[in-house]
Amino acid sequence: MPQTWMITGANRGIGLAITTELLRRGDHVIAAARDPEANTLTELAAAHPGQLTPLSLNVTSDASVSAAKEALAGRAIDVLLNNAGVYGPRDRQSGLDVDFDAWREVFEVNVYAPLRVAQAFLPNVEAGKGRKIATITSRMGSIGGNPGNALIYRSSKAAVNMAMVVFGNAVRTQNVAVLLFHPGWVQTDMGGGGADITPAESAGGLIRTIDVSGMAETNSFRDWQGLSIVW
Ligand SMILES: NC(=O)c1ccc[n+]([C@@H]2O[C@H](COP(=O)([O-])OP(=O)(O)OC[C@H]3O[C@@H](n4cnc5c(N)ncnc54)[C@H](OP(=O)(O)O)[C@@H]3O)[C@@H](O)[C@H]2O)c1
User: Fold this and answer.
1) What is the pLDDT along the chain (231 residues), one digit of tens a residue?
2) Percentages of the chain per state (helix, strand, coil), in multiples of 5
C-alpha cells in the first residue's frame, strides 16, 4: 500500500534523495520547498505522474506555513519529515566568539521551524495510517558526545532534540510516533564532498529505519541505520 510522505527541504541534498527513492518505490511525496517549481522537482514530477505534489513552504514563515496548511487541509500524511536545515556561518561558532545574529537565524530554521511544521500538520498525520513525525537532527547535537566546536549548529540540534521530545510526549496519547535521526555525514552542500556517504545511501537507510519504527521508538535519537545515539 503506497504511503504519503511530506518532506521539507525536498529540493536538494538529503531531502531530494529521500524524495527520489520514495517515488521510485511508488509512494506519494508532498515535496515542500521554498521553490517547489525548481527544475529537479519538476523533472521528478514528470517522471512519476501523480506521485509528487509540489508545495511552496518557507519553514521559518508563519504565513507560508499557514498557507501550506490550508492547501493540504483534509489530506492524510503517513510520515511528516522535518529535513530542512542550515549550518550557519563557517566561522564565529566557537565558545569564545559567536555571531549572535547568525545564531538566531539558525534557531529559526533548525529549532522553531520543525516544531511549527509538526504542530501545523499534526491533523494531517492524525488522518493518516503511518502516524509518524520524524526530524533530521544531527549527532552534533549530542551533549554526551563531548562537543568541541560549531556552537551555533550543535546548540540548534540539541535544542530541536529537546523540543521534539516534549512534543512527542504531548502527542503520545494520539499514537503519533516522534522520531529523531542523524542522517550520517552526507555528501551534500552542507556535508561537503569529503563526507562519508552519498545522499542515496543516507536516504535508503533513513527510509528503511522509519518504515519499521512506531510508538515503541517514539522519542528515540538514532542514526540513519537505526543505531542509538547518546543524548
Ligand atoms: N549533510 C550532512 O552531513 C548532515 C549531517 C547531519 C545532519 N544533517 C541535517 O540534514 C538535513 C538536510 O541537510 P542537507 O545536508 O541535505 O543540507 P543541504 O544540501 O544544505 O539542503 C538543505 C535544505 O534545507 C532547505 N532549507 C533551508 N532553509 C529553509 C527554509 N527557511 N525553508 C525551507 N527550506 C529550507 C534548503 O532549501 P533551499 O534550497 O531553498 O535553500 C535545502 O532544501 C539538515 O537538517 C541538516 O542539518 C546533515
Assistant:
1) 999 999 999 999 999 999 999 999 999 999 999 999 988 999 999 999 999 999 999 999 999 999 999 999 999 999 999 999 999 999 999 999 999 999 999 999 999 999 999 999 999 999 999 999 999 999 999 999 877 899 999 999 999 999 999 999 999 999 999 999 999 999 999 999 999 999 999 999 999 999 999 999 999 999 999 999 999
2) 45, 15, 40
Q: Indicate whether residue 231 lines ligand 1 (CB < 6 A).
A: no
Maximum pairwise Cα distance, the chain = 53
Q: Which grid cell sits at 85?
A: 536545515
Domain boundaries, the chain: 4-223
Contact predicate 121/6, CB 8 Å:
yes
Architecture of domain 4-223: 3-Layer(aba) Sandwich (3.40)
pTM of the complete model:
0.98
Grid-cell match 521553490, residue found: 35
Q: What is the DSSP letter of 228?
A: B
Q: Is the CB of residue 60 below 6 angstroms from any atom belonging to ligand 1?
A: yes
Cell output for 131: 502516524
Among 16, 86, 104, 116, say which to mutate for ligand 1: greatest number of ligand atoms within 8 Å of CB: 86
Q: How far apart are CA 84 and CA 153, in angstroms?
A: 13
The helix or strand, by DSSP H or E, that contains position 54, with its residue range, turns out to be strand 52-56
